[in-house]
Design a protein that fits this description.
Blueprint lengths: L15 E4 L9 H4 E3 L3 H15 L4 E4 L5 E2 L4 E5 L2 H21 L3 E2 L3 H10 L7 H4 L2 H4 L11 H12 L3 H7 L21 H16 L6 E5 L5 H8 L3 E6 L2 H13 L6 E5 L9 E7 L10 H11 E13 L2 H7 L5 H5 L9 H11 L3 E7 L1 H17 L1 H6 L4 H20 L3 E8 L6
Parallel strand pairs: 3-5, 7-8, 7-10, 8-9, 10-11
Antiparallel strand pairs: 1-2, 3-4, 5-6, 11-13, 12-13
Helix pairs in contact: 2-3, 3-18, 4-18, 9-10, 12-15, 16-18
């Protein structure tokens, strides 16, 4: 068994007062203590928060009995002062940390977060949004996706523990959006839905007997195994040591070592030329400054006449532009260095920096919402298993919030997921 304690970079903001009950300050310093906000900050924060909440289809109940909102999903704020202090000091990072500390909760967390996600663009008054650069935290320089930075960022999520991921993923160990035949989906259908997604990608890329396939982002190896079963010769790249170790074991068990090579290698350092390239939900870990490098690498590694199948989570372009330079809760605690692109950003980067052509695009965000629901429910069912691996209650609340927050993004339409086909002319330009 591989057991790991959570490893999160924290950035203390200002002075702090009382500690949050039951939170380990060694592992969670910014959750364990509540920021000390000045009277003007507290007053402005409370005004802005209450103004935003009273216009939403929610019921937000505070400890003093006050209730805001137009009615709907319930949010219960258990510690009003801490709730406002955290948001005043760290914005949406503070909102997530307040949940991690148990200062607010919701009977239907996904439902409440779906409302907030649907109104993400207008929660903050336009005048304050124009001043975002003054109050929003900036992305830490240490989380840039340089060669060394990418290894660290990937390790902090994917090297937590293979056993942890095995608790809530299906037997294919596939950690990306599945494609279902109908809704609602049952857990027993998830593995087949993941294979359906993988097969669609392999079909897009034209993977068949004798094809040389490059996979950027191995995961735990299911796509490489399925491609090799078609007769492809697969080279798969990962920066996660734990994922590689288990993926190699799965390749050995399948008797496909002669067809699958799994390398601990950054995409920027990959040599060779391939007939097809597949990359599933890896671009989100690249970072905006490296998107041109990423797509040029796809172009350079692809032989003339080849095909790229790309699966990518996307968000609206204007929201991406508004948030691309700020530090978010998801970056701080879940995916350091990550940034979700827009379809416009992807297609502009492909057009301006490569000789590739966008031949097809298909969005299926509702399928990701269903995938996340199944993972979240499974994670909740295995709470005892998570604790047995050495992860504490704060970690459990963090991951509950992450899975619910992500599901809400897709249910609201704020997030989507695309499968792209990129092609390269037979005669290189």
């Amino acid at each position: 068994m591989t057991t790991a304690r959570p490893r999160f970079a924290t950035h203390r903001a200002g002075r702090h007062h009382r500690a949050a009950a039951g939170v380990d300050p060694t592992h969670w310093p910014d959750v364990a203590t509540v920021p000390k906000a000045s009277w003007p900050v507290r007053t402005v924060t409370e005004f802005v928060v209450r103004r935003a909440l009273q216009r939403l289809p929610l019921r937000v109940r505070f400890t003093d009995g006050a209730t805001l909102g137009l009615g709907g999903q319930l949010i219960e704020v258990r510690d009003t002062k801490a709730f406002h202090a955290r948001i005043g000091a760290r914005g949406l990072i503070g909102f997530g940390e307040s949940y991690m500390a148990g200062e607010w909760d919701a009977p239907d967390l996904v439902g409440a977060l779906t409302v907030l996600a649907a109104h993400a663009a207008d929660l903050i008054p336009p005048r304050l949004q124009r001043l975002r650069g003054l109050w929003a935290q900036r992305q830490p320089h240490t989380q840039r996706n340089t060669l060394d930075g990418s290894r660290t960022n990937i390790s902090r999520h994917y090297d937590l523990s293979n056993d942890l991921f095995a608790l809530f993923l299906d037997e294919t160990l596939t950690y990306s959006a599945a494609v279902f035949r109908g809704f609602p989906a049952d857990w027993s259908l998830l593995a087949a839905a993941q294979h359906r997604k993988i097969d669609r990608l392999l079909d897009l890329a034209g993977v068949r007997e004798g094809i040389r396939l490059l996979e950027i982002g191995t995961g735990w190896g299911e796509l490489a195994l399925r491609a090799a079963a078609r007769g492809a010769c697969v080279t798969s790249l990962t920066l996660s040591r734990e994922q590689r170790e288990l993926a190699l074991e799965r390749v050995r068990r399948a008797g496909l070592c002669d067809r699958v090579s799994i390398e601990l290698c950054d995409y920027r350092e990959a040599p060779g030329t391939y007939d097809a390239v597949v990359s599933v939900e890896m671009i989100e870990a690249v970072g905006a400054e490296f998107w041109p490098v990423y797509f040029r690498t796809l172009d350079e590694r692809l032989a003339p006449g080849g095909r790229v199948a790309l699966q990518a989570i996307t968000m609206p372009h204007e929201r991406m532009l508004a948030s691309r330079d700020t530090h978010t809760w998801i970056q701080k605690y879940v995916f350091p260095g990550g940034l979700i692109p827009s379809t416009q950003a992807i297609e502009e980067t492909v057009r301006e920096h490569t000789g590739l052509e966008v031949a097809a695009r298909d969005g299926f965000g509702v399928h990701y919402a269903e995938t996340l629901r199944l993972w979240r429910e499974r994670f909740t069912e295995h709470a005892d298993g998570v604790a047995a691996l050495g992860f504490d209650e704060t970690f459990h609340r963090l991951w509950t919030f992450y899975l619910a927050y992500s599901e809400a993004g897709f249910r609201s339409g704020y997030l989507d997921v695309q499968q792209y086909l990129l092609t390269k002319e037979t005669s290189a330009r």
